[in-house]
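Archive maintenance. Older records in this collection stored only the sequence; we are now back-filling the structure field for every entry so that each record is complete. The fields below show one back-filled record exactly as it appears after the update. Entries are processed alphabetically, and Oxidoreductase is next in the queue.

ARCHIVE ENTRY
Title: Oxidoreductase
Organism field: Streptomyces griseoviridis
Length field: 441
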Amino acid sequence: MSGSPSGTPPWDPAELPAQPQLHGVVTADVAVVGAGLAGLACAYHLAERAPGLDIAVVDARGPAAGASGRGTGLLGPRAGPAVDRAVRRFGPDTARRVYEASVRAVRDVLDLCARLDVPCGLRPGEQIVAARSPAGLTALARQARACRQLGLDVPVLSAEGVRDRVGVPRTAGLLYRPAATLDPAALTCALARACAAKGVRFYGDSPLLAVHPGELVGPELVFPHGRLYAGQALLAVNSAAGAVGLPVGTVLPLEVYAVATAPLSTPAYEALGGRAGCALVDAVPMAPYFRLLPDGGMVAGGGTVTVPTGLGAARLRARGERAWRWLEGWLRSLHPELAGLRVTHRWSGRIGMTGDDLPVVGPVPGFADVWYIGGCCGHGLALSVAHGRHVAAALLGEPEPGEPLPWHRSRAPRLPVVGPVRGVLRAGVDTLGHVTRRSHR
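Back-filled structure field:
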């Protein structure tokens, strides 16, 4: 993969435990590779439920350095495909369970913030998925009908209802709750500190190079300067699974973009939902969205997605510049007082996308006692914490009750991401983004 996520989000760096590089031969009862929300949630629940367990967390850079620290902090109850497509694919009972699991995931994050006493700018509120384009309204109508048929608490908002909450013109919307906005890096770093306080060891600047089945017990994990032998392992490496050769299907890396601004005027802040704490997401694919910050600024994202695999650094930077320019223009179009608003931060990050919009949370085929988490498809803030808890329970031999969810599986569908077909895939993603941006001019 060429290039890397660029720019700096507005989240302040937080204090972290010591993270020496992994050198020589290291052993652990459980190895967690990936110090994002999924890996740290797993380590946290393991340490809490099994005190004395020897747990090592290893990351290519450090906690919050990846997607968990570069997100935009939208916490809302949605997972997998839109609810109408989930009904068609899985049937009404499973579609309802999927949505209810996403609601529980949001509540789990809120509970975790309270338990850790995280100073992360948490603002409980609502999340509105709204539309004004014909395509968006059609998608919204299908989703509203499916929610009603499943008996889900997802009210329909009129144009006036949307405007009353977030002050922007949209024809209709769906209201999702519980929801919140927060500083994702602060939560990730707080989890790291909580893990360290429970005796979890950390290693940084140690990218995973390979995984081998252990000859006697557990896997052998290979890093640039050493090896880790563990009884069990979680590989919470998201779209890096392909580079390591994990047989978990295709978890495609996608570059997504965001900007943050200086504080708005008080009238503009209040008009755009400052008092209610709402976030707005458009109903079309690659939708632009915005949320407000506690300091009075705004964060906006969406509208453009790039398949970075095979792109050189210069082309990736050029795509980023175009994405940021469009986002800034869209953001300033939301309210007359935003016309001269100064953008203070521009950044990008990598998410993992699967061919069927579902994560992968399960044992790695061919490797005893090795699990994988990845492919949250842009909904990782809530789902990652839930996935980490689920894997911790499985590693302890105490699986959570209830039927497996559709993402409790070992493989995602394979996608053609190499050779000439990769260009076709990139062109399709680019076209979808162009249609989305054109509908918001």
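Update note: The mean pLDDT is 91. The two ends are 32 Å apart (CA to CA).
Entry marked complete.
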